[in-house]
Automatic annotation (TrEMBL):
GO terms for molecular function: deaminase activity. Gene3D superfamilies: RutC-like. It comes from the Bacteria. This is RidA family protein. It comes from Paraburkholderia aromaticivorans. InterPro entries: RutC-like_sf, YjgF/YER057c/UK114. It holds the Pfam family Ribonuc_L-PSP.
């Protein structure tokens, strides 16, 4: 039976989420997969919600994950799935698409983008990562 691990303690993340009284895990590790809680655009230096335009919010949300991934010895190249929730999907989708393309390289992660009535922020992201990079995935072609 695989061992499940829980990470629930990273100083910069703890500082940021404490203000929202959240009581959830940062991520669970199960075998080769890391399944993350969602994050809005948070400024990791101040622990507050991002200020500025949508791109700042989106990049700060990705920066949260990058910090967590690096603490686990991984990088954005290990992200295999991105779920994106946008407060204003029609307005923000083109900007989100540009941020996504700038922050991830091919082969790109699977992705889903939907509109949502968010509790805080303009964007919330949810990642799944693997201990193997996307670039090392075996390419399977249909016959």
């Amino acid at each position: 039976m695989p061992i499940m691990k829980l990470l629930n303690n990273l100083p910069k993340i703890d500082q940021a989420v404490r203000q929202f009284s959240l009581k959830n895990a940062i991520y669970y590790e199960m075998g080769d997969l890391l399944i993350f809680s969602g994050f809005a655009g948070l400024d990791l230096e101040t622990g507050k919600l991002s200020e500025g335009n949508f791109e700042t919010h989106a990049n700060d949300a990705i920066d949260c994950y990058q910090y967590i991934l690096e603490s686990a010895g991984l990088s954005l190249d290990h992200v295999i799935s991105v779920r994106c929730y946008l407060k204003e999907p029609v307005t923000y989708y083109p900007m989100w698409n540009e941020v996504f393309k700038a922050r991830f390289t091919a082969p790109y992660p699977c992705r889903t983008t939907v509109g949502a009535n968010l509790v805080v922020g303009e964007i919330e992201l949810e990642f799944i990562a693997a201990k193997t990079t996307r670039a090392s995935a075996e390419l399977i072609t249909s016959k």
